[in-house]
């Protein structure tokens, strides 16, 4: 009876100790360097690819009216007025631009122009088996917006092809100004005379995330995603939850327990801002590395529908939408969603907003999804803490444990190699120190022996 009582007491003591340790770990704050190292593996890029075939009437030049313009130029030449070839071309293009319907005619034939539009954003893993949180507006574009984008893209390509064909048939090269005049001419013609029709509109959603290969090299994986549940783009609850095929050891981010962060609290914001992702001077393979910006909670506001939103001064840009907004404990407190516009239409710096995780939790509760840290992420965090304390043997042991759980965990190979190098350097230093100690001891013995011989005489 006493043994059973002691066993039960020991169990309760261990439970209390575990709770205290968990609370201590929960309360631990991380530097910006640690915050990034812990959360970077679980931040993902969201790619929504819209594809369609755009059909547009072929156009042909009205040769009769075009020849009339050329005849008028010949009449001017015979009258003694001399124009350069470029001036004559300017006159022709102006005549066409002033009355394009005299020169261009629609045919019964159609051009099929395949088009593809990609929308990029940010998200993050909330479970080790592949559930991802992001913004709804990244995957749920308005049909009218998509149609406009497709038609604009098709118009640009077809117009450039038409201008190039004219240059070839007229055996000339247009100046930038002349190309601009022709561009405006075609815009007028296509908007009024020719119809553009969309067929086979499709939408594919992908999650792109960083990974390590067995060779030690880092790269990225792109996996098709399905929509589990979604809200509505702003001013609606701009939340979407996606799912990709995955095991149970994908890198994850922890969702904060608190309802709302406090004003003045430090924030760490992750994302894939367009100006960086699409920068021609940035290597394409590094596009998967998320950008970290920092700031504070500037205010807690309310949306027009009455639910809370987080105002922050951390810099964001298009492409950052859906990214995690984390506190100093590395926990997600919100999702980057929208900014404020200046009068010129650009984003106002430092006036940005995030949807709090309380809204995300509504959708998680509806789908019975329980966000949780994967075991790989828990062990990886412990390994990083040991690594930052320069306890490289302990860190190496935990990093290798992560490798058993997920051999492709992002950045893992670099940390393992670093630990081994630090341990090797420490051993080399220790060996060198020992050698010097032995040498010093030998010199000391020799000196004592010489003194002994001298004193003996």
Structural class, please?
Answer: alpha+beta
Mean pLDDT: 82
Order of strands across the widest beta sheet? Answer: 5-4-1-2-3-7-6
Shape: elongated
Number of strands: 13
Count the DSSP helices.
11
Rg computed from alpha carbons, rounded to a whole number of angstroms: 33 Å
The string of secondary-structure elements, in order, is: HHEHHEEHHEEEEEHEEEEEHHHH
In short:
This protein has 457 residues and is of the alpha+beta class. The chain has helices at residues 2-27, 32-39, 63-78, 85-98, 143-170, 176-192, 274-277, 357-367, 375-388, 392-405, 412-456, and strands at residues 43-61, 104-125, 131-134, 196-212, 218-224, 226-230, 240-243, 266-271, 291-302, 308-312, 324-326, 332-338, 352-356.
Folded structure, characterized:
43% of the residues lie in helices and 25% in strands. The chain is α+β, with helices and mostly antiparallel strands and 457 residues long. It has a domain at 379-452. Strands 5-4-1-2-3-7-6 form a 7-stranded antiparallel β-sheet. The radius of gyration is 33 Å and the shape is elongated. It starts with a helix and ends with a helix.
């Amino acid at each position: 009876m006493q043994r059973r009582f002691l066993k039960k007491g020991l169990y309760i003591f261990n439970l209390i100790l575990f709770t205290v340790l968990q609370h201590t770990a929960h309360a631990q704050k991380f530097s910006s360097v640690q915050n990034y190292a812990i959360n970077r593996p679980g931040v993902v890029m969201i790619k929504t690819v819209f594809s369609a075939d755009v059909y547009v009437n072929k156009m042909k030049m009205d040769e009769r009216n075009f020849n009339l313009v050329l005849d008028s130029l010949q009449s001017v030449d015979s009258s003694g007025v001399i124009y350069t070839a470029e001036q004559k071309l300017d006159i022709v293009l102006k005549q066409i631009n002033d009355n394009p319907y005299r020169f261009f005619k629609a045919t019964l034939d159609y051009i099929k122009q395949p088009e593809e539009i990609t929308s990029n954003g940010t998200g993050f893993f909330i479970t080790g088996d592949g559930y991802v949180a992001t913004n709804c507006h990244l995957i749920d574009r308005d049909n009218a917006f998509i149609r406009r984008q497709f038609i604009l893209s098709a118009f640009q390509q077809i117009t450039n092809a038409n201008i190039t064909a004219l240059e070839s048939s007229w055996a000339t090269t247009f100046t930038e100004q002349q190309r601009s005049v022709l561009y405006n001419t075609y815009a007028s013609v296509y908007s009024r005379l020719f119809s553009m029709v969309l067929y086979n509109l499709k939408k594919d959603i992908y999650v792109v995330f960083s990974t390590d290969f067995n060779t030690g090299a880092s790269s990225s994986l792109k996996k098709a995603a399905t929509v589990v549940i979604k809200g509505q783009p702003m001013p609606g609850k701009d939340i979407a939850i996606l799912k990709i095929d995955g095991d149970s050891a994908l890198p994850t981010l922890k969702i904060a327990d608190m309802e709302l962060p406090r004003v003045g609290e430090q924030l760490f914001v992750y994302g894939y801002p367009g100006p960086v992702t699409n920068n021609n001077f940035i290597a394409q393979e590094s596009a998967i590395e998320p950008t970290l910006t920092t700031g504070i909670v500037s205010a807690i506001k309310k949306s027009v529908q009455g639910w809370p939103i987080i105002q922050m001064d951390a810099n964001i840009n298009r492409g950052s939408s859906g990214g995690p907004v984390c506190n100093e404990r590395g926990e997600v407190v919100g999702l980057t969603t929208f900014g404020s516009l200046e009068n010129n239409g650009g984003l106002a710096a430092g006036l940005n907003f995030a949807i709090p995780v309380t809204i995300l939790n509504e959708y998680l509760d509806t789908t019975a999804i329980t966000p949780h840290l994967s075991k790989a992420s828990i062990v990886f965090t412990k390994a990083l803490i040991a690594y930052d304390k320069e306890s490289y043997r302990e860190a190496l042991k935990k990093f290798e444990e992560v490798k058993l759980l997920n051999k492709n965990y992002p950045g893992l190979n670099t940390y393992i190699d670093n630990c081994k190098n630090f341990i090797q350097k420490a051993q080399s230093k220790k060996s060198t120190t020992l050698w010097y100690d032995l040498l010093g001891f030998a010199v000391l013995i020799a000196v004592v022996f010489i003194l002994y011989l001298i004193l003996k005489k």
